[in-house]
Amino acid sequence: MSANRSFRNVTRIGPVQVGTAYDSRGREKHTAACTAPRCGFSADYDSRAAAELAARTHRCPVR
């Protein structure tokens, strides 16, 4: 089942975008996803601070 989320409060930290959305159970989730080609990093977090920390410390393996 694919996630069809409507993100709000989207910010960009380097190549990583951080956005807030509700999951299928109605809980607020924060997602960090790298937009660099062939990187593939994305993760969901319960707090905005955790997602922003992941965005700040992310290093793409492909350069």
Strand content: 35-45%
Please count the beta strands (DSSP E, at least 2 residues each): 4
Between the first and last Cα atoms, what is the distance in angstroms? Answer: 31 Å
Count of all domains: 1
What spatial form do the alpha-carbon principal axes imply?
globular
Run of helices and strands = EEEEH
| Strands side by side in the biggest sheet | 1-2-3-4
Summarize the structure.
This protein is an alpha+beta fold.
Structural description of this entry:
This protein has 63 residues and is an alpha+beta fold. The chain has one domain (8-57). It has one helix and four strands, in the order ββββα. The protein has one helix at 48-57, and strands at 8-13, 16-22, 28-34, 42-45. It has a four-stranded antiparallel β-sheet, with helices on one face. The N and C termini lie far apart (31 Å). The mean pLDDT is 90.
